[in-house]
Each structure stands twice: as C-alpha cells, then as structure tokens.
Structure prediction request, 243 residues.
Amino acid sequence: MFLTDPALRRIAADTNDVLPEHLWRHDTATLDPIGDLARLLHTTARDFTDSTTSLDQALARVSVLAEKARQGLAVRADLHAAGYHQVLTDALTARERHTVLGAGLITTYRAWRNHQTIGDGDERHLLLRRCDPSQGVATLRRKDPSTWQVVPDAEAATAFDIPYPDRVVGEVTETDHGWTPTAYTDPQHRQTTSVMAYPLPVCDDLASACRSLLRWWHLRHSDAWRSRTPAQLTPAELAHLAS
Prediction:
C-alpha cells in the first residue's frame, strides 16, 4: 500500500503528488542550494513523522480519558476526570507542533519540488481522488506512448470494494476526446477479442478514467451486474462510471 509514511501522505493530500519514497534523499549529498533544500526537507519530514506519532498517542490518551469520564457520568451523573487538564494540554501542544511542522513540510517540499521533475518515466503514481489519499493510489505503467496499464494499491481496492489489490485492472488511453478506459484483469484478454476486455465510456481526465475501471469491477462483482456488458448499462450507470 502506498502512502503509509505520514510525510508522503501529507504531501499527497496538500499537493496531489504521490511519491513512492523520500525522493529528496538522493539530493542530500549535493553541495548546492538544491542539496540544502533536500537536507532541510529530510529533517522536516523526519520531525513531522515523529510528530504524527506523538499526536496520535496524545489523542489516544484523550480518548481513554473521555471514555472513563463518560462511564463515570453514566454511573454518578457527575464528572470526575483526574488529570484531564494535563492530558488536554498535551494534546493541544502536540497539535500545535504538528500544525507548524506540517506547514513547514509542505513549504520546504514545494521549494525542493520546483527544481525537480517527478513522474516523467514509464511508471507513475496517481491519487484516484485529487488530494484525497483515503481513496488510494493507482500505479500507471506505460504500455505505449498514449496508453497506461492501471494497478490499484490495497487502499484503493478497499475504497472501491474490488478484489484486485496490486493487480492490473485495465488500461487507459489518451485520445483527442479524453481518456478511454478498457477494463481487464489479464493483459492477454486485451490482445485478443476476448469478452473479458470491457471498453468503458470516455472520461474527461486521467484520474476519472482510472476510477472508471475500479467502478466497473465493483459493479462486475456485485449483484447489480446481471451479466451485462458496459453497452447494456443504464445511462445513470454509465455516467457514474465516468464521473
């Protein structure tokens, strides 16, 4: 699954960039302004990750205290929560530090990113919903200059309720009219006239074309499928696929 690292997840949420790792680490040995930015970004990312852990622990303590207080309120109709001042203060302090570090992380990342090119190779990574890591990541593998095979990560498979984590679910092709998705789970099906390759409606952009593939497979594995092809879907179903 992508974006398990807090710093990478925050960067994706704020910038829509999906990085497979801390790519800036390759610049940390460079003795120039880019190297300076990379080293600062490395330190900030590490501090942000530590802060994420600290904030999570502080919020967990608040949750435990709140549950005990609720139980006491139910039993005695009164509130006795020893130590709540310190617990709440710790949580607020952790939140403030996390907010500052998060802003610093994004500012430093943008400065470093201005000098780097990301995602111009034969493999790239895309949030399935802009700036929303909770919907998962699609890995795109170039098949030809205008076509990419699509592989959803485990988080995407869960979000769209399909049984294909880390597996090819089809391809998307850029045309003069937008992006055309074709759903399949075996690349051999695409190379033949197999009925297991499903052409889907043209989409406006790359992300919606990738979502269309996952939505098709969700439908394909649901009771609503009823052995239909995309051409047999209702207008509302087709519109949902392409949205």
